[in-house]
């Protein structure tokens, strides 16, 4: 990771009337952007490896096939941004709004998301080995086929998300989180600890989809209550 002193800092005033591709070509070192509005801009296929973005706007921006390995994103607003086929190996997103963003076929190995809003985000067919989420909202997101094997899943809201074919074996849900009404067809939960996660809306007839998981007595009582039974 580059030292902050090595970065060339760019703000909104400097970006006015500036061609980003030319700027990248003229600066061999990593760039740092602060408070820049990239909303709805075509940033596809640009080389922004190791760049740092702080409080920048990317609403509906097109970053298709952009090179973003090692990039840092702090407090950015990127709702509906397109990261399709982008390379984001070791990228770090912190406190970002990424609602309804698109990540299909992107490379996200070892990427991390902390305190981010990812409602409706689509990660279908992404390469995500070692990806991590911490304290994130992933409601209605598409995460089909993603592996969380042996992961610590801290405060993750997967309500109504598509988790089909995901691997949750030996994963542990910590500090709450939710699997309420999530689609878990063909997901694997062997030895997954779900005791701190919300399973609201889960019916006993659907419980077989969580085969092998560890749940609490309160969660078991909730399932039986759906059949009109009471656990004393």
Write up this protein.
The protein has 232 residues and is mainly beta. The protein has a domain of 142 residues: 3 Solenoid (Pectate Lyase C-like), CATH 2.160.20.80. 9% of the residues lie in helices and 12% in strands. It contains three helices and nine strands. The chain is elongated and about 70 Å long. The termini are far apart.
Short description:
The protein is mainly beta. The chain has helices spanning 12-15, 20-26, 217-225, and strands at residues 8-11, 31-34, 52-54, 72-74, 92-94, 112-114, 132-134, 152-154, 172-174. The chain has a domain at 1-142: E3 ubiquitin-protein ligase SopA (Pectate Lyase C-like, 3 Solenoid), CATH 2.160.20.
Keywords:
two-stranded parallel ribbon; seven-stranded parallel beta sheet; 9 strands; Pectate Lyase C-like; elongated; Pentapeptide-BTB/POZ_domain; 5peptide_repeat; 3 helices; 232 residues; mainly beta
CATH topology of the domain at 1-142: Pectate Lyase C-like
Helix amount:
under 10%
Computed structural class:
mainly beta
> Which spans of ≥5 residues are poorly predicted at pLDDT below 50?
none
Largest sheet: 7 strands, parallel
User: What is the global morphology?
Assistant: elongated
Total number of helices: 3
The termini sit apart by 56 Å
Which series of helices and strands comes N to C? EHHEEEEEEEEH
In CATH, the architecture of the domain at 1-142 is 3 Solenoid
Number of strands: 9
Mean pLDDT: 93
Name the CATH superfamily assignment of the domain at 1-142. E3 ubiquitin-protein ligase SopA
What top-tier CATH class of the domain at 1-142 fits best? Answer: Mainly Beta
Strand order of the largest sheet: 1-2-3-4-5-6-7
CA gyration radius, whole angstroms: 20 Å
Strand content: 5-15%
Pfam family, one: Pentapeptide
InterPro entries: 5peptide_repeat, Pentapeptide-BTB/POZ_domain
């Amino acid at each position: 990771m580059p030292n902050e002193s090595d970065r060339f800092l760019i703000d909104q005033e400097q970006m006015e009337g500036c061609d980003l591709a030319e700027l990248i070509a003229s600066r061999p070192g990593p760039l740092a952007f602060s408070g820049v509005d990239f909303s709805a801009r075509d940033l596809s296929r640009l080389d922004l490896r190791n760049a740092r973005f702080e409080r920048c706007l990317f609403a509906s921006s097109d970053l298709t096939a952009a090179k973003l390995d090692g990039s840092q994103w702090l407090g950015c607003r990127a709702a509906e941004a397109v990261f399709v086929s982008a390379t984001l190996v070791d990228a770090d997103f912190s406190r970002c709004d990424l609602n309804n963003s698109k990540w299909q076929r992107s490379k996200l190995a070892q990427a991390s998301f902390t305190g981010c809003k990812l409602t409706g985000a689509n990660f279908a067919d992404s390469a995500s080995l070692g990806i991590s989420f911490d304290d994130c909202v992933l409601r209605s997101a598409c995460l089909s086929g993603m592996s969380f094997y042996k992961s610590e899943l801290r405060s993750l809201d997967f309500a109504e998300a598509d988790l089909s074919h995901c691997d949750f074996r030996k994963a542990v849900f910590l500090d709450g989180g939710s699997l309420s009404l999530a689609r878990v067809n063909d997901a694997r939960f062997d030895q997954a600890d779900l005791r701190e996660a919300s399973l609201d809306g889960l019916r006993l007839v659907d419980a077989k989809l969580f085969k092998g998981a560890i749940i609490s007595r309160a969660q078991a009582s909730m399932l039986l209550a759906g059949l009109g039974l009471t656990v004393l």
